[in-house]
Amino acid sequence: MSDRLPGFSTLAVHAGAQPDPTTGARATPIYQTTSFVFNDADHAASLFGLQAFGNIYTRIGNPTNAVLEERVAALEGGTAALAVASGHAAQVVVLQQLMQPGDEFIAARKLYGGSINQFTHAFKSFGWNVVWADPDDVASFERAVTPRTKAIFIESIANPAGSITDIEAISTVARKAGVPLIVDNTLASPYLIRPIDHGADIVVHSLTKFLGGHGNSLGGIIVDAGTFDWSTGGKYPMLSEPRPEYHGIRLQETFGNFAFAIACRVLGLRDLGPALSPFNAFMILTGIETLPLRMQKQCDNAKAIAEFLAGHPAVASVSYAGLASDKYNQLARKYAPKGAGAVFTFSLKGGYDAGVNLVSKLQLFSHLANVGDTRSLVIHPASTTHSQLDDAAKVKSGAGPDVVRLSIGIEDKEDLIADLEQALGA
Ligand SMILES: *Cc1c(COP(=O)(O)O)cnc(C)c1O
């Protein structure tokens, strides 16, 4: 064996997986079982007391899911990961470990529309207060910090316009405030950006998007960077204080640099219950094997399509960080040199009606609410994903009435351009 560290594409195929020790199966089997037999009573007791690692019940862990967790942790450069049922489940499980009623977290205003909803409405009912900041104005994060701030949440490449966030600058604010930086890396995937390399403490994903990549399975994942000290100042009692349900152990003291991933599993997932089906874990693992190939092709296609749109007379403007003229191009060169992602927006001279009209005329693009599929997708955010926002908030989050969002797939770019051409021209 050489002592070379495996590269990203090798990890995407192999990390976490071995031939099945009993059958030799080369693909990771789907362990479609709810529960696992204990060796004896002592083994059972030690598993329940967190004195030994092992399988108990699929709500808490499953061998197929474990391969997925190890693979994504390796791709992101984290110490450990926890797979859950969806991207939204990942967000609620992460924040449940950090927040007490009355606490605050700061979130970038440019986010996936569903996250804006979750933070504004569902989290409010838990007593968790979101404070919005502008990802283009790092000082706005600094100004938002209070003694009750427990975390900062941003997207690496932000919905819907594919803008690039200055992760390092915001991680400096988080470090100064003594709170973890959580980065939703869904639109970039670790192939384009590894937020932990830029100061993130926790990475979350909707696996539903580019990692699974085929538009067929929901999933989410939490990656622990292992960088944050949870014991300072008694701010994070879930991690630093004795846990009554586990014989009084303190998670940070016992599990060190993967304590956060453990807390998410043995407190969050165990009690809230959004477990990922092993079948979905298998589908997503299969998807991840081709992530580098798909992501590169999708970025290359997206750039060609953004250039085509920028030159079209019906188009008022294109927001794609991969274009040299884009305001995020400098940040894209720094954070995502392989490509600026495959999700971006453009605006039409004809406003809201032109957006609705375009969406109805496209044939190869599917009109639906998803991103990161092999298929190219289109949506008009103002009438769908961002429709719950008032007009000013729509514009602030990059989803004004004239804006159309594309998620570019792996088809031939000439066919995608031809479809846009007929729909724009007609
Ligand atoms: C889709 C998405 C989510 C939510 O993920 P689900 O798997 O749909 O729950 C969160 N963040 C981003 C950036 C997304 O695109």
TrEMBL record:
GO terms for cellular component: cytoplasm. The keyword Cell cycle does not apply. GO terms for biological process: cysteine biosynthetic process from serine; L-homocysteine biosynthetic process; transsulfuration. InterPro entries: Cys/Met-Metab_PyrdxlP-dep_enz, Cys_met_metab_PP, OAc-hSer/O-AcSer_sulfhydrylase, PyrdxlP-dep_Trfase, PyrdxlP-dep_Trfase_major, PyrdxlP-dep_Trfase_small. Its cofactor is pyridoxal 5'-phosphate. Keywords: Pyridoxal phosphate, Transferase. Transmembrane segments: none annotated. The modification N6-(pyridoxal phosphate)lysine is found at residue 209. GO terms for molecular function: cysteine synthase activity; O-acetylhomoserine aminocarboxypropyltransferase activity; pyridoxal phosphate binding. PANTHER family: HOMOCYSTEINE/CYSTEINE SYNTHASE (PTHR43797), HOMOCYSTEINE_CYSTEINE SYNTHASE (PTHR43797:SF2). Belongs to the trans-sulfuration enzymes family. This is O-acetylhomoserine sulfhydrylase.
